[in-house]
Amino acid sequence: MAVSAIDQITTIYLGCSGIKEQKILNGESILRINLNLDDLRLWGNASKSLPNTNIILACDNDGVEIGQTKLTWVVGAAIRGMNIKSPAAVVELLIQLGSEAAIAPEIVTACPGLCTEISWAFYKERHGWLCASPALNPEQLQILMKSCKEI
User: Fold this and answer.
1) 116: helix, strand or coil
2) pLDDT in tens, the chain (151 residues)
3) Which of 67, 96, 126, 134 is the most buried (most CB within 10 A)?
């Protein structure tokens, strides 16, 4: 039986230290998987306000076409949603939005359920690292918390 994306996220969550993040390195480039409970709730709420999207992006501009903007950090960002059918297309978009080509492909294996079972949010953090956080719906968050016994 195949392991669900939420089960894979739970495994990552349980393997994280107290700050609930996983860093993936490729040379000098870093992908940060953010599983902090407050951020999971934040992105879950963002997902509710962006129906029919499976990708959420923190962009520096919401008044232009998506390809004319850049990923930025969350505070003050234009939060934009998209529905993308393949992880490869998400990688291409992230590179177009300013992510490093060396690290963007790591999302394919590091983000369980990408473009299928789980909505994912992408943004940059203050060091310029690419960050990803699952935008879990309430049921998915409940499964994670029950599995982790944090409710």
Assistant:
1) coil
2) 688 999 999 999 999 978 899 999 999 999 999 999 999 999 999 999 998 999 999 999 999 999 999 999 988 789 999 999 999 999 999 999 999 999 999 999 999 999 999 999 999 998 899 999 999 999 999 999 998 875 3
3) 134
The CA distance from 106 to 81, in Å, is 21
DSSP string for 56-109: EEEES-SSS-GGGS-B--STT-EEEEE--S-HHHHHHHHHHTT--TTTGGGHHH
Alpha carbon separation from 120 to 63, 112, 123, 124, 151 (Å, rounded): 22, 9, 10, 14, 23
